[in-house]
Amino acid sequence: METxxxxxxxxxxxxxxxxxxxxxxxxxxxxxxxxxxxxxLEEEYDILVDALDILPDNFSSLNAISAxxxxxxxxxxx
Amino acid sequence: xxxxxxxxxxxxxxxxxxxLESFFDDEVENYPFPxxxxxxxxxxxxxxxxxxxxxxTAASDLCIYGLDYLLKKExxxxxxxGAIIVTTTFPxxxxxxxxxxxxxxxxxxDDVVCLDISQGCVAFVVGLMEAFMILDHLEPGKKALVFxxxxxxxxxxxxxxxxxxxxxxxxxxxxxxxxxxxxxIPFVLHNNGAxxxxxxxxxxxxxMPSNAETAEMRDFNGDGNLRSLDNLTMDGTGVFNxxxxxxxxxxxxxxxxxxxxxxxxxxFLFHQPNKFMLRKLAEKIGIPYEKMPMNLVENFGNSxxxxxxxxxxxxxxxxxxxxxxxxCLASFGSGLTWGAMIIxxxxxxxxxxxxxxx
Lengths: 78, 358
What we know:
The complex is a heterodimer of chains A (78) and B (358). With 78 residues, chain A is mostly helical. Helices cover 45% and strands 0% of the residues of chain A. Chain A has one domain (2-10, 22-71). Chain B is built from 10 helices and 15 strands.
């Protein structure tokens, strides 16, 4: 989980993801941030995220992102 | 619409881009985001540089630059032109049509068909469809010219990081003619007007004429991007999901209808919205990256309906002069509209990318 936090903070350094219950509703991530995030998750976890899974709900929280990584075949170790 | 066209071929294709290049690195400070965050999009989206026209350049100027070249090289004669089909979203004027301006510029006969089509990203495919149909009604020996031209840099806010870096200006011209020996061209076209506002320029038409209020720069979405109602705006997530949901089944429909597989197609020449979207489409459809050029945005920008001819002439100019390939052309965008065809391309009289002084 810490790895995903680090990726999120590198994309939006000014945002406090740990205090947000919904990254999308709180305006922490927009559609272009999601593109950056998908690219970094694919590189970090050596996965390919299915295009049809690139939906806001799958990026709304740390748990949602972790679930997406797992669904895409990635292993969350931390 | 699902059909096949017979006895038609493209004999020449040229792309035309402006000479002026604008570099993403130089634009970063225009966007209301931390530079580090913005630069992350460079690699993923293919933001590197794009071409934009001069302030005085209009859509027809790029077309005329291209046709001047074709006439000068005697690839086509004036008396062979039977139809001028222009696709654009940003014509020189609301009235008259760009096609008429071109006909007038060259003093072509008054029986030349002049037709403007208001289409964006799907424009080249729709323009070819019209050319195939019109050719059935032209005198023997007459040819149709399809111009896809757009200068949308003029309608995108330079303070909109989600749109400006990927937009490019440009045009493509195809000479289309009757050829009884040409192979059939399977074709599909779909529309979903209910999603039309996902890609829209809200003001400037009869619904909301432009005025001082529509020109005011605002942060409409609360995301920091500044644009006015006169600028192009896009629901990025909505458009992305539309493309990824609708384009793969369209390609499957087209191929399976001909008992063809991905391996049977030499080149997948798709509209070029951005590198990320194309990479995801290729993964979803199962197209090897090497069969699907996706380098237009990083070199020229997304020039709306002109991307397929510019992509073809940039990447495959030499190959297309000497060989013949089975190609799948596909495009998708404003409307929302998506369409595709399988067509043999090659042995072209001209296949060149021109750098214009427009």
